[in-house]
Write a structure and sequence with these properties.
It is a single chain. The protein is of the alpha/beta class. The chain folds into two domains: 30 residues, no CATH class; 139 residues, Nucleotidyltransferase, domain 5 (2-Layer Sandwich). The chain is globular, with a radius of gyration of 18 Å. The N and C termini lie far apart (49 Å).
């Protein structure tokens, strides 16, 4: 993509992108923003996950839960479910408040694969099946991973936290 289009895409609003695309008869792909979170009441215990997906003006909220799980498993499930919801290979900006997910996906996973899913201490990787799903799904997309501090007033992070808790509440029929 020409550099000018990259700059336009990175700095223009969704409305401006649509106008520019129409005017120049040029498709400017949107980066898909994904925000994820997991929650658990007791660890392990009932848990939930939430995700917000945004492309231009369009947003989609996802959430769900599991009866007996951990917070890390719910954080990972939010990533998996959101990446599964993408209909085609995409450019993604994925924001999580989980350092476990961020570092696992960006730093540790290649070493785990080289060691046949063992840690540097030669122990089996925890949540290996979820990590394998994340690896397979992430390989279909171009993902920029970003961390945000949880419960710090970040609007999208607060929303996905609410969605994750909704996932737990719906398990209990509340």
């Amino acid at each position: 993509m020409p550099r000018l289009l990259v700059l336009i895409r990175e700095h223009a609003s969704a409305d401006a992108l649509e106008l520019i695309s129409t005017f120049f008869n040029t498709y400017i792909p949107f980066m898909i923003e994904i925000y994820t979170d997991g929650a658990c009441r007791g660890n392990p215990g009932p848990g939930g996950w939430g995700a917000l997906m945004r492309s231009g003006k369009h947003e989609k909220e996802l959430w769900g839960g599991a009866e007996h799980t951990t917070n890390n498993q719910m954080e990972m499930t939010a990533v998996i479910k959101s990446l599964e919801a993408l209909k085609k290979p995409s450019e993604v900006l994925l924001t999580t408040d989980s350092k476990y997910v961020l570092e696992g996906a960006t730093k540790w996973i290649e070493g785990w694969k080289k060691r046949k899913w063992l840690t540097a201490a030669k122990q089996p990787v925890k949540n290996v099946e979820l990590w394998k799903q994340i690896d397979a799904l992430a390989s279909k997309h171009t993902i920029q991973w970003r961390w945000v501090k949880g419960h710090s007033g970040h609007a999208e992070n607060e929303l996905v936290d609410q969605l994750a808790n909704r996932g737990i509440d719906e398990l209990k029929g509340a």
